[in-house]
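TEACHING EXERCISE
Course module: macromolecular assemblies
Task: Read the component lines below, then compare them to the predicted structure of the full complex.
Student: A.B.
Group: 4
Components provided:
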Amino acid sequence: MTELSKGTLYGVGVGPGDPDLMTMRAIDLIRNAKVIAFPTLHGTASFARTIAAKHVPEGVREIPMVVPMTVERGPAQAAYDTGAAEIAAALDAGEDVVCLCEGDPFFYGSFMYLYARLATRFNVDVVPGVTSVTACAARAGIPLAARNERLTILPGPLPRAALADRIAGAESVAIMKVGRHLRKIRDVISELGLMDQATYVERASLPDERVLPLADAPEDAPYFSMILIVKGGDPWL
Amino acid sequence: MTELSKGTLYGVGVGPGDPDLMTMRAIDLIRNAKVIAFPTLHGTASFARTIAAKHVPEGVREIPMVVPMTVERGPAQAAYDTGAAEIAAALDAGEDVVCLCEGDPFFYGSFMYLYARLATRFNVDVVPGVTSVTACAARAGIPLAARNERLTILPGPLPRAALADRIAGAESVAIMKVGRHLRKIRDVISELGLMDQATYVERASLPDERVLPLADAPEDAPYFSMILIVKGGDPWL
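Instructor-supplied answer key:
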């Protein structure tokens, strides 16, 4: 079999949740797919698959990757090893594979685990998507950054000191994957005196989204929640 | 005239350049628009209008905002004052206005100038778009960030010291609006010993895009160019 007869792996961003925030390119690829792959957290429906659902053709072959939500990385790595092997077999047989990714494939997405395993052997085409960061800003009505402002994206699991240091040094901050780290993050923001500039956003662009001042955020924040801090010294006029 | 009879201002992200990277929601709003608005840099066609072109209906009313490219902010502010007044008149008359925005409206976009002028008086709906940051990463084949990595977005016009400080403190950095600041930025990155991890991307997702190691970047970088630095200590496996 020649190199040319191998399939292409498409890493397709499906955006933050509202199916209408998928790009035309993503929709076209999904509608014409013969094989799709997607991560699914252990015990739940795949969020990426749900977003794309109405465009997934009948009879498509599906490769779910069941990723356990553990702090240790070993079990998730094993799930991606298994998924990558199944995807590689399809690509080797000349089939294209469309991998569905929440948000954008290269922006805190699990697609990079597949990319690390497959990009040296196969042709990979990455289709960017709308990220949860700009979706949250849009839904909260909060411009993120303009002109010479610095914007920092931080994952919620970071330790206190790292969070505090990076929040202090940027005009705007988006903190992702808040979930069970909410209390720690809120403490840090409170100590920095930034509670009045902090907004909590949950499931942005979905019917059950919530946008609240951080002070009013629920204790049981879901994994797909975010905190935006926009210091906004400049009135953007 | 009651409040309810006023029109809605839609701030619509049209993505990084490839028309197929527009969202379904953006396309639907543009196709059904009676009035569109867009910024245009003095003497050039509007990039946002060009991206959206094939969906703009015949007979639509167009409100271009001719923004001068000056370092002083006064002339640009005057252009947005004039545009906002014309848009406000349409909204007051009950017409919806679809404002086309390159990338995402709230991510270093000029839409925030309209938002600052109009959001207190009118209903505004912001539709997020694919940003140039993730488009550049996709085209360069460079995952931006995963797990607990910090990602910082910096505007190229920042002074040397601010750039150096923020580049040093994040695992991944995207520097926007490179243009005539290329030499300064390259010097800073070189002094930090990060040239081998730095990639230059110009006009990502367009037919004439260029992806090069920063060391090979052209001296005459256009405004729509970006530098990605991904330190990648972690192999994402």
